[in-house]
Design brief:
Structural class: alpha/beta
Number of strands: 11
Distance between the termini: 20 Å
């Protein structure tokens, strides 16, 4: 389970930590949502992306309005090798680390910010529908499970699935 390859990376941007107050809450919300959706998540720094790319299927840009000047080209190279880029929040990739305007990156789809991690998960399911999601649901409501960290990993013909509930009350879950 620990060696399973992540499918999604969150862009770690030092300039956005400094310039963009919404960067940190957005990255936390995305991480929480993806974690409770059963996704194996990693982080990729701008320098890592520029130097060696990323081996994930998708890079999410979490309200990173200010990035290193090399980041747009690194994302373009990543996309040309079949990776997908999703900007989360408007004005992503619009300025460099010195707050100078960058060329438009409008070719990447944009996802508007949702109010809570749970709302974010709902939108992410729609936007990232091409990713494989294990369909873990609350048996009582039929809604996607929330507050439950899980991963589904294939080992040969078997599937391993560790499940940890962070809810205060017991829940019965159903895996479809």
């Amino acid at each position: 389970i620990n060696t399973a390859r992540p499918g999604v990376a969150l862009l770690y941007s030092q300039p956005s930590i400094f310039w963009q107050e919404k960067y940190q809450p957005t990255i936390y919300s995305l991480y929480t949502a993806l974690n409770f959706m059963g996704q194996n998540i990693t982080f990729v720094s701008e320098r890592q992306l520029a130097e060696r790319g990323s081996r994930v299927q998708c890079v999410l840009v979490p309200n990173a309005t200010h990035v290193l000047a090399t980041t747009p080209n690194a994302l373009t190279r990543f996309a040309k090798t079949g990776g997908k880029v999703l900007r989360v929040g408007k004005d992503c990739l619009s300025r460099d680390e010195y707050a100078q305007p960058l060329q438009s990156s409008s070719s990447y789809p944009v996802m508007e910010l949702a109010g809570s991690p749970q709302a974010m998960a709902s939108v992410l399911r729609e936007k990232l529908g091409w990713l494989e999601f294990a369909d873990l649901r609350d048996a009582a409501t039929g809604q996607p499970a929330w507050g439950v960290e899980f991963r589904s990993v294939r080992v040969g013909r078997q599937a391993l699935m560790p499940v940890i509930s962070f809810n205060t009350e017991a829940k019965t879950l159903q895996l479809r």
